[in-house]
Amino acid sequence: MKLWGGRFSKNEDEFMEEFNSSISFDIRLFEEDIEGSVGQAYALKKAGILDKDELDKTINALNELYEQYKAGEIKSYDGYEDVHSLIESLLYEKIGDTAYKLHTGRSRNDQVATDMVMYVKKEALNISNLLLNLLDTLIGNAKKYNDIILPGYTHLQRAQPILLSHYLMAYFEMFKRDYIRFKDMLNRIDIMPLGSGALAGSTFPLDRDYEADILGFKCISLNSIDAVSNRDFCLECIFNCTMTMMHMSRISEELILWSTKEFNFIEIDEAYSTGSSMMPQKKNPDSLELARGKTGRVYGDLISLLTVIKGLPLAYNKDMQEDKESTFDAVDTVKICIAMLKRVISSIKVNSGSMLAACKTGYLNATDMADYLTERGIPFRKAHEAVGNIIRYCEEKGETLEDLSLDELKKFSDVFTDDVYGAIDIKNSINKKLTTGSTSQEMVEKTMSIEEEWLKIEKSLM
């Protein structure tokens, strides 16, 4: 069952066998290893190492193994070091010694590197599709809630009124960048390592370009040492996962806060909440808390693999076996969290009255009053100071800016006239914003139109 051992006169210690084995987790690469072996078989046929009958037997047997694996018929992996030795052994049971020819010109070093890059390519596409679905949900909700006003925050303090659609589109931009990172990564990692051998290449005339075409790679690696020792594609994938998780953690944190009685901005659907084993009244946002919590795990995956790779000499070292669990975990976690977040956002109930009421306290229209004075010839710094004095006056009296009479306002600046009340109206405050990308309804609708067209194009390309 070993792919090595001729040089050894002593059996491997059982504890070492268990310690050395990766079959418990690299079994997930069964499909990729079969695909890579199919490509290898065709390359060996072209190089004259397999004849037509041997090629047909090998391809048919590999396809049978794949179907058996998909059907759940391959269940026992005991005694196998890794997925490669398992498949070779199963292949031998079907076609005899021809199975052993398949490893001609191939090392587990270039074999596993090829398996992993194929896996990352596949999962990057899966994550990209999930992100497109999340983006679709965000823009759908932004259109649905385009006229709802809520406080915007800086330093977690109420700052200026914004549209809920503008808030949702902020996260659209974050997840759009995540999508672009995964898509861009595919252009960079689509390089086939197979044919690099253990580190120095192969003495057999394998047509690597032909093999890359069979396996769906854009190009082949140009340095065999780098090809077998490269795990940048795993690191980049995990990094992209960490960025996506970080963005999901940020929106989860805000939605958790908004769902509290203190905010009362939203209600999270019961389908994505849990109760307390002790307190009957509780409705906990566990779906979002788990997404927030799992972010730390994915960060750990990145740091773990970076630490593994940082001190490795060229070329392959067994330390690199640690690439798989970190990559698998990051991919699995980000996929389930994106799918969950989409469901939560789709089902949220918005309490628009609470959002608007929150805008009417905290002097969110103070900047608009300062802008009003600036538009009438007062330098902004002096206008800022005057409005600051007005707010201190309001706080002493327990009033809002709208509550003050014109006579009271004139004590601070004689340029105030009746039109100031229109200038500091919450809705007017939003719609007076002129710059592209701002929170006015006109600008948000313009942004949504641009992003909706972009989203439509991207979905058509997937």
Concise structural overview:
By secondary structure, the chain is mainly alpha-helical. The protein is 63% helix and 5% strand.
How is the secondary structure organized here?
Blueprint: H1 14-20, H2 23-26, H3 30-46, H4 52-70, H5 83-95, H6 98-101, H7 108-144, E1 149-154, E2 157-163, H8 164-189, E3 191-192, H9 208-215, E4 219-220, H10 224-229, H11 232-258, E5 266-267, H12 286-309, H13 323-347, E6 349-350, H14 352-359, H15 366-375, H16 380-397, H17 406-410, H18 420-423, H19 426-431, H20 441-461
Parallel strand pairs: 3-4
Antiparallel strand pairs: 1-2, 5-6
Helix pairs in contact: 3-4, 3-7, 3-9, 4-5, 7-8, 7-13, 7-20, 8-11, 11-12, 11-13, 12-13, 15-16
Indicate the CATH class of the largest domain: Mainly Alpha
Strand segment tally:
6
Element string (H = helix, E = strand): HHHHHHHEEHEHEHHEHHEHHHHHHH
The CATH topology of the largest domain comes to Fumarase C, Chain A, domain 2
Molecular shape? elongated
What integer value in Å does the Rg equal?
30 Å
List low-pLDDT spans.
none
**Average residue pLDDT:** 95
Strand order of the largest sheet: 1-2
Distance between the termini: 41 Å
Question: How many helical stretches?
Answer: 20
Quaternary structure of the protein: single chain
Label the structural class. Answer: mainly alpha
What CATH architecture of the largest domain would you give? Answer: Up-down Bundle
The largest pleated sheet is described as: 2 strands, antiparallel
Question: How many structural domains in the coordinates?
Answer: 3
Beta-strand level of the residues, as a percent range? under 5%
Q: Tell me the CATH superfamily of the largest domain.
A: Fumarase/aspartase (Central domain)
Share of helix among residues?
55-70%
